[in-house]
């Protein structure tokens, strides 16, 4: 077979990896393998000879009217005209990846009969989409917002979706308020301002008048609202679901994802700058990590409450504005997920994926959580506007298990069912409902009684206890960030009614906190307590609780800042050492091109080293840490360059680890002038000085560098080990708490 027909036959590439990837390959075209001649065709398969020039009635000058009869041009333009579909009404901007999920053992069979949660021999394919909520598809990644964390498990019993967020609670208790909170947070209707953020009158107006949103508003204004990476976020199912075991016993459950790398955030100044410097920061980070083999990983945990204990808590366990404190309901870690494959094409996978809270499998069920009940309607409904009624048939959405029923027709139906019956019962017994004993979904029998009325439960009326609990649980640095985050946003509200109302409301959370915020934003500074702070706290709500037990620099981006005349042997040793710790290194020089080490003449391109980026093109914001190696000329060149000096000051302001060796130390000390820092001063000494996350040394022993990285620790005195330890800590908050970052211009 040859030509176009042959090419079509060869269009489907080999099946690889998980069952879902194999399933997607059925629709994947790899042009490399498509055909020897890679024939360009129309949508209906006819070879095209010219895709550049519209058919014209040409005169002797080669111009003339374009002819409508050109079916090839018409098809090209007409397909282009219809490329856009509606973006998601919320969570429009996102990035996604494929991966796998496994449970460690069958421990959860006490609670559920779901194979995906109890069968350790299974590897379940997953597709995860991370997103921001407020902004449009084209908005920036690093804005302050909730992050979506939606997981589709392609299980043997059908698709199960956990459509969660990076924050364990939500703004509202009842789904009927969802259009209000989203209208309030989205750009204002008059001028469509602002994009990608909640710093405006309407959002703060709404949350000031809707006290149930207080707890969530604090979470979003905390570091949780500006994650360093999707890979460094917790994930939560948020709503209360149920599990049912093989004996028919029912439990309430909350789902958790805990990231292997810990929970880390950007600093607000950094997030804002990245919004302009690299609006795709998070999606590129996800791709880079997977492409370099640093596969993002999360543990999966459940909190479980037996059905009989539903009413034994001071809060209502069906209220999505409340956490279940782990001291009361311990978290049980039962499995893990790894993301190991980027998408092949954004639109058919990331854009067309459609999650639904109503996608559950036997052994998992819903609760009467009034937010969840509304969500179960909303997702299915909205996919029809976005993707059409046959959206479940799209390759990324279809299950990997057999799927068969009497649903028919509708726009864009792909399936052809070879059966003359499309109803049940039918004489051929096609499409038989399956008894529960054989795997049919079982609606757990639940006694229901009550009065039909619009109401909220009594415990749903209490809104501040857990907001105070959250505030009390933050470390001093986290609390400072929260105060600054909320103050930034209220400062963007220019209607005094809005920021006065909100600062008054904050007095219900904590008197001192309300005073701090009100003073900064010009709100109502309270004189007396509205409520006493109950003083309760928990370590589990602070991000620091999730620091990896063994310090790691895996996937951290380390910049090596150089000018001409740097010490090449040292840079090579550092790069090898950081690579051994699974970090990536980036040489930042005056230009992206050759930079000349000590002893190599300017212009000796052959012996120059290619810099990955230049000072101006990639700022410190894109990296986790920076090292300045030895080399007299390099240090002098850096000191003369304002952008290079700013690089280090900015890294200091953002509390990042800074390392310097030999003459590099002099550059940091004299040019960057970091306040309050102590340095190694003796160029001939191997003694490492670690001060406020700035690690300096006069001399390093090259041969020890590689071994050094593998023992990242505070007690080890090697330069690489000490520096890697500071990187592993994510940031040096002491710098900020001791007021040093306030003293440096960045
Ligand atoms: C617990 C609170 C909620 C959480 C955790 C949550 C989470 C999410 C996530 C992660 C997405 C993005 C899914 C994706 O990546 O494609 C999403 C989209 C969406 N959510 Fe929610 N949501 C919540 C509440 C609600 C409520 C109460 C409603 C409506 C009553 C709602 C309606 C929607 C809609 C319409 C979309 C767009 C779906 C699409 O077009 O694919 N959400 N939500």
UniProtKB/TrEMBL annotation:
Q: Which residues form the Catalase core domain?
A: 41-432
Binding-site residues, heme: 379
Any single GO CC term annotated in Swiss-Prot or TrEMBL for this entry: cytosol
Tell me which Pfam families the record gives. Catalase (PF00199), Catalase-rel (PF06628), Catalase_C (PF18011)
Listed EC numbers: 1.11.1.6
Q: Which PROSITE patterns match?
A: CATALASE_1, CATALASE_2, CATALASE_3
- Entry annotation: catalytic residues: 91, 165
**Molecular function in Gene Ontology:** catalase activity; heme binding; metal ion binding
Q: Which cofactor does it need?
A: heme
Q: What class of enzyme is it?
A: oxidoreductase
Keywords (alphabetical) are:
Heme, Hydrogen peroxide, Iron, Metal-binding, Oxidoreductase, Peroxidase
Return the SMART domains for the record.
Catalase
The processes (GO biological process) annotated in the record are:
hydrogen peroxide catabolic process; response to oxidative stress
Which catalytic reaction applies to this protein?
2 H2O2 = O2 + 2 H2O
Q: Which family does it belong to?
A: Belongs to the catalase family.
What functional role does this protein have? Answer: Occurs in almost all aerobically respiring organisms and serves to protect cells from the toxic effects of hydrogen peroxide. Catalyzes the degradation of hydrogen peroxide (H(2)O(2)) generated by peroxisomal oxidases to water and oxygen, thereby protecting cells from the toxic effects of hydrogen peroxide.
- List the PANTHER family: CATALASE (PTHR42821), CATALASE-B (PTHR42821:SF1)
Protein name per UniProt: Catalase
Protein species of origin = Steccherinum ochraceum
Q: Which gene encodes it?
A: CAT1
């Amino acid at each position: 077979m040859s030509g176009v027909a042959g090419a079509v036959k060869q269009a489907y590439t080999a099946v690889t990896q998980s069952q879902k990837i194999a399933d997607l390959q059925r629709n994947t075209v790899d042009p490399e393998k498509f055909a020897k001649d890679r024939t360009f065709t129309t949508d209906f398969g006819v070879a095209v000879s010219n895709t550049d020039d519209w058919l014209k009635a040409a005169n002797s000058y080669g111009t003339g009217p374009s002819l409508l009869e050109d079916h090839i041009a018409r098809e090209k333009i007409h397909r282009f005209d219809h490329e856009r579909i509606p973006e998601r009404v919320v969570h429009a901007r996102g990035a996604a990846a494929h991966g796998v999920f496994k449970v460690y053992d069958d421990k959860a069979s006490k609670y559920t009969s779901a194979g995906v949660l109890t069968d350790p021999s299974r590897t379940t394919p997953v597709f995860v989409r991370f997103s921001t909520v407020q902004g449009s598809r084209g908005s920036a990644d690093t804005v302050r917002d909730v992050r979506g964390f939606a997981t589709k498990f392609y299980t043997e019993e059908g698709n199960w979706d956990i459509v969660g967020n990076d924050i364990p609670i939500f703004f509202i208790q009842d789904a009927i308020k969802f259009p209000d909170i989203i209208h309030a947070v989205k750009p204002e209707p008059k001028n469509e301002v602002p994009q990608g953020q909640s710093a405006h009158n309407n959002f703060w107006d709404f949350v000031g008048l809707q006290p149930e949103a207080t707890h969530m508003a604090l979470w979003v204004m905390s570091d949780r609202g500006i994650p360093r990476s999707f890979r460094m976020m917790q994930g939560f199912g948020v709503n209360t679901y149920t599990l049912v075991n093989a004996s028919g016993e029912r439990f309430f459950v909350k789902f958790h994802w805990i990231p292997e790398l810990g929970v880390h955030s950007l600093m607000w100044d950094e997030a804002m700058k990245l919004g302009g410097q690299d609006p795709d920061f998070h999606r590129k980070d996800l791709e880079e990590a997977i492409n370099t083999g640093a596969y993002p990983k999360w543990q999966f945990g459940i909190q479980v409450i037996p059905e009989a204990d539903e009413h034994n808590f001071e809060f209502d366990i069906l209220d999505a504005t409340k956490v279940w404190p782990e001291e009361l309901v311990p978290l049980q870690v039962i499995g893990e997920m790894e993301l190991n494959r980027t998408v092949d094409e954004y639109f058919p996978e990331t854009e067309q994926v459609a999650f639904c809270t109503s996608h559950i499998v036997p052994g998992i069920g819903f609760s009467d959580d009034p937010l969840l009940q509304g969500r179960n309607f909303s997702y299915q409904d909205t996919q029809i506007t976005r993707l059409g009624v046959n959206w479940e048939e799209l390759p990324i959405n279809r299950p990997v298990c057999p799927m068969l029923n009497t649903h028919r027709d509708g726009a864009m139906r792909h399936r052809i069912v070879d059966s003359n019956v499309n109803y049940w019962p039918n004489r051929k017994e096609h499409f038989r409902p399956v008894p529960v004993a054989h795997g049919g979904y079982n609606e757990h029998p639940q006694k229901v009684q009550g009065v039909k009325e619009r109401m909220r439960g009594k415990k749903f009326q209490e809104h501040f206890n857990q907001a105070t609990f959250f505030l009390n649980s933050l470390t001093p640095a986290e609390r400072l960030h929260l105060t600054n985050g909320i103050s930034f946003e209220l400062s963007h509200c220019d209607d005094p009614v809005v920021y006065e109302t909100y600062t008054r409301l904050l007095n219900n959370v904590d008197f001192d906190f309300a005073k701090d915020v009100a003073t900064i934003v010009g709100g109502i500074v309270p004189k007396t307590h509205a409520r006493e702070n109950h003083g309760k706290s928990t370590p589990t709500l602070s991000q620091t609780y999730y620091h990896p037990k063994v310090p790691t620099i895996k996937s951290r981006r380390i910049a090596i800042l150089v000018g001409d005349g740097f010490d090449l042997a040292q840079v090579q040793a550092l790069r090898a050492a950081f690579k051994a710790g699974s970090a990536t290194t980036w040489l930042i020089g005056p230009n992206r091109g050759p930079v000349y080490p000590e002893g190599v003449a300017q212009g000796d391109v052959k012996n120059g080293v290619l810099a990955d980026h230049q000072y101006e093109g990639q700022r410190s914001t894109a990296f986790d840490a920076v090292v300045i190696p030895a080399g007299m000329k390099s240090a002098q060149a850096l000191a003369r360059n304002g952008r290079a000096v700013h690089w280090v000051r900015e890294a200091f302001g953002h509390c990042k680890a800074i390392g310097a060796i030999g003459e590099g130390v002099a550059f940091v000390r004299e040019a960057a002038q970091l306040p309050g820092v102590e340095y190694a001063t003796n160029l001939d000494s191997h003694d490492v000085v670690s001060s406020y996350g700035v690690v300096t040394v006069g001399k390093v022993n090259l041969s020890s560098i590689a071994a050094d990285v593998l023992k990242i620790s505070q007690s080890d005195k090697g330069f690489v080990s000490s520096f890697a330890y500071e990187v592993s800590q994510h940031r040096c908050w002491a710098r900020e708490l001791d007021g040093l970052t306030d003293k440096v211009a960045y």
